[in-house]
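Researcher: I'm comparing several assemblies side by side, and this is the next one on my list. It has 600 residues spread over four chains. Same procedure as the others: predict the full complex and return the structure.
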Amino acid sequence: MSKSNNVYKDAFNRCLRLLDENKSLPSEPELGTLLGVSRTTVRSILARMEETGLIDWNKRNKTVLRAPRPEDFFPEEETDSLAEIIERSFMRRLLAEGAEAGMQINELELAREIGVGTTSVREFLIRFSRFGLIEKRRNSHWVLKGFTRAFALELTEIREMFELRSAAAFAALPEDSAVWVDLDMLEVQHRQLASEIATRFNEFSELDERFHRLIHRASHNRFIVDFYDVIAMIFHYHYQWNKAEERQRNEVAVQEHLAYIAALKSRDPVKVDAACRKHLKSARQTLLTSIPEGRQAQPA
Amino acid sequence: MSKSNNVYKDAFNRCLRLLDENKSLPSEPELGTLLGVSRTTVRSILARMEETGLIDWNKRNKTVLRAPRPEDFFPEEETDSLAEIIERSFMRRLLAEGAEAGMQINELELAREIGVGTTSVREFLIRFSRFGLIEKRRNSHWVLKGFTRAFALELTEIREMFELRSAAAFAALPEDSAVWVDLDMLEVQHRQLASEIATRFNEFSELDERFHRLIHRASHNRFIVDFYDVIAMIFHYHYQWNKAEERQRNEVAVQEHLAYIAALKSRDPVKVDAACRKHLKSARQTLLTSIPEGRQAQPA
DNA sequence: GTAATGTCTTTTATCGTGAAAAAACATTTT
DNA sequence: AAAATGTTTTTTCACGATAAAAGACATTAC
C-alpha cells in the first residue's frame, strides 16, 4: 500500500476553510507556507478544487466559485498520519486495565492488530521509548514498564527540577524580551477562561501546555525543552481517559497559573519560586491520585 | 541481503574464548545465558565447532578436542551489529570538520554511503535524536544541530543538576546498601589505576563511566539514569577522536574521583556536594576547551 | 529581473518479503 | 519429574520496491 496521502487530504481540508470568504487564492508558494506543505501538494489540492468546481484555476488566477460544502471535506479519519494512528492505538492499550508492568510487547501482533506494517510500529516504539514507559531487549521483544506510581513520581521529580529552574530564568529575562508580551497574552486568555470556566473548562489543557512550554523555553536548554514532550504526552492521554473532577481540577489550576503569572511579572525570585512550587505540588497530587492503586510494578 | 548473522559470529568468538581451558562445555541453556543468546544460536555455534573439529558433540557430551587457533575466529568487523556500524559512520561525519550546524541530513545518501538499507538508517536517526544533536522536519529531512559550545553547555547543565542530586541521594543510602560494596571496589580500582597511570591512563574512560553510572543509579529515577547515556555517548566519541592531553586529563580526574569517593563515604552532604561540584566543574572545563572555537551554530 | 508556474528528479514513508534469532512445543535422558 | 536435547513456530531485523511528498530545475509571466 506504500504511503497514504493523508498530508494532502489534511492540507486540502485546511485549505477549504481558508477558501470561505476570500474571492481569490494566493500564489502556490504562498499557499505552501500557509499550509505547511510543498508546492507539489498545493498543486494536487488546487487540481482537485478545480475538478470539484470549487475554484476556477488558470495559472495565477485562482478564483473561488463557491463556498465549500460538508461533502467537499475528506473524512477526518483519513487525515491522520500513521504515526498518530499507531500512537492512539498503543496508548489505549497502555492505559487500559490489564496493561501490567513487565508485560511483553510484540511488534508483529501490534502491527497486525492496527493493520499497518511492522516497520511503522518499530519506528513508533523506538520514538516512544524515550518516554521511559517501555524498554527494548536486544534482538528480542519490548518490555512494558507500565504507567505506575513510580513512573509518575520520577516524572514529576524531573519536571519540578526543570520548571523551577526555568521559572527562575524566566523572571531574570530583560524587560524588553519578547516573552513578556507572550506572558501578557496568556494572562488575558487565562482570565477569559476563568470567567467562563463553567462551560469552557475543557479548553484548559491546551492553554496549560502553551503556558508551561513558554516557561520551559526560558531555560534555553534543549534537554529541558524536549522533556516537556514527555509531560505533555502523559497529560494528554492520561486526562483524555480520566475525566474525574475535570472541571474542579482545571478551575484550581487556572487560579494557580494566574498567581504564577503574577509572581513572574513581579520578577521577585522568592515569589516565583513559591508560586511555581505551589502549582507543581498540586499538579503532582492530581496526577498521583488519578493512578489506580492496583497499578504496581511487578517484581522483575 | 536480509539480516546478517553477527549475533551468531560474535557469540561464536566469545564461546571460543570460553573453550580454552575447560575440557567440556555446559548444557545448551547454560551456554545460552552465559553468552546472552538463545538456544537456537548456541546450537549453530556448537554445530560449527563440531564441524571445524574443535569439539566432539554428542547430545549432552561436548568434549573439547583442541584449543582454538586464530583462524577459528570470525573477523572482528563481521561481529558488529548494523546499528553499531551506522553509529560509527555517522559519528565520524558528525565530529569531522565541516559538519556545521544547520546542515541537512539525507537518509538515502547516508544509507548509500554506508552501504545499508534506508530503514536501518532511519531507525538509527530516530534513536539518535534523543541525544539532542539532530532534529526531524516532518515529512522531510533531518537537520544537524551540531556539536557546538551551546550543546556542551546545555548538556553539562543537566548533568550537574542530575549528578548533584544523585550524589546526595547516594550519601543518604543506608549503611547496609549494596552500593557501598560497589563503591569500595571502584575505589580499589581507582587506586590501582592511579599507581600505574603512566601506562594505563587509557583505561580511565571505562572506569569513569562505571563510577558515574553507580552514582546516578542512586537517584532511582529512570530519566536521570537514562540521561547518562547521552553523556556517555558524547564522551565516548568525543575523546576517541580527541586525544590531546589525555594522560594529564585522566590523572587529574582519577584524583578527583578518589576525593569524591572519600566524600561519599564520609556521608557528609556538604563534603559530597563540594567534591561533586569540583569534579563536574573540571569535567565541564575539559569538554569546553576541546571544542574548536569555529564550531558555532549558524543563524537559522 | 524577480517571482510565479510548469516539469522533472530525489527523498521520504510504508509495505511485503526472507533470513537470523528467539521462543514454544515435543521428546528424550538422567 | 526435572532438565536436557530435538523440532517447529513465531518474531525480529533488514532489504528492495513503490507511491506520496518534497525539492530542484526550466520556463514563462509580470
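Model: For your comparison table: Strands of chain A lie at 55-58, 61-64, 104-105, 134-136, 142-144.
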